[in-house]
Design goal:
Helices cover 78% and strands 0% of the residues. By secondary structure, the protein is mostly helical. The longest helix is centred in the N-terminal third of the chain and has 36 residues. The chain has one domain: MetI-like (MetI-like fold, Orthogonal Bundle). The radius of gyration is 21 Å and the shape is globular.
Length: 237
């Protein structure tokens, strides 16, 4: 029971958690294939201009605060171009297409932040496998670099890539607090900030429990997927 309005926290939190999952899923659908694909492309072209450009851009997005990226996107796409609304106000009766349209700017903000980190980790994981003897043997057989990376290095680098993706998916759910406040998005993060401002301790505790549960579940799934994709982890030494 909330202290301020005496409402049931679970009933208030449930639709907001659905909104947060929708935003996180929207960003993940864009960020995961984009970052993994660009990471593999960067590893294939190590030292060339695609690799250098991706490193510079990803490092820039990692270094910039998330609220600054959000305000820049609002300035460009909501104020100057007027393509998207600056306030992502969603409600239960809103259609799926309209919900996607309203949530585009916060989803793009999360995508830029998460994809940069996943891109760099995908590149590092693939390149760390490239020094293995079986990779050198594949090169000695005359196989092109792209085929060696896709067919030999990438399957063995899948476990750390999955772990990084799971951690970033957890960030999409746990780290949306700032993004939801900037875009006034009715999710768990906005609800938690409202609870903090009103000193409503049960609301803050409930939101923290939801964030912690999401983080634990995603990390557990990452460990299970890592075992499934790596046969060496399924067999005792």
């Amino acid at each position: 029971m909330a202290l301020t309005n005496k409402r049931d926290i679970v009933k208030t939190l449930a639709p907001r958690f659905q909104n947060t999952l929708f935003l996180a899923g929207f960003a993940a659908i864009i960020a995961v294939p984009l970052s993994v694909g660009l990471g593999i492309l960067s590893a294939i072209n190590e030292g060339k201009w695609p690799d250098k450009v991706s490193n510079i851009v990803s490092l820039a997005f990692i270094s910039v605060p998330e609220f600054f990226v959000a305000y820049i996107l609002i300035l460009i796409f909501a104020v100057i171009l007027a393509w998207f609304p600056s306030i992502a106000n969603v409600y239960q009766s809103m259609g799926f297409g309209q919900r996607l349209y309203v949530a585009t700017l916060p989803a793009l903000t999360l995508t830029m932040l998460v994809a940069a980190h996943m891109l760099r980790m995908t590149r590092s994981s693939v390149l760390s496998i490239m020094s293995q003897p079986y990779i050198e043997m594949a090169f000695l057989k005359g196989l092109p670099r792209s085929r060696v990376i896709v067919h030999h290095a990438l399957p063995n680098a899948a476990a750390p890539i999955i772990a990084v993706i799971a951690l970033n998916l957890a960030y999409l759910i746990v780290g949306v607090v700032v993004i939801e406040v900037v875009f006034v998005y009715p999710g768990v993060g906005q609800y938690m900030v409202d609870g903090v401002s009103k000193r409503d301790l049960p609301v803050v505790q409930a939101c923290g429990l939801v964030f912690a549960s999401a983080f634990i579940v995603l990390n557990t799934l990452a460990d299970l997927l890592s075992i499934l994709v790596n046969p060496r982890l399924r067999r005792p030494k």
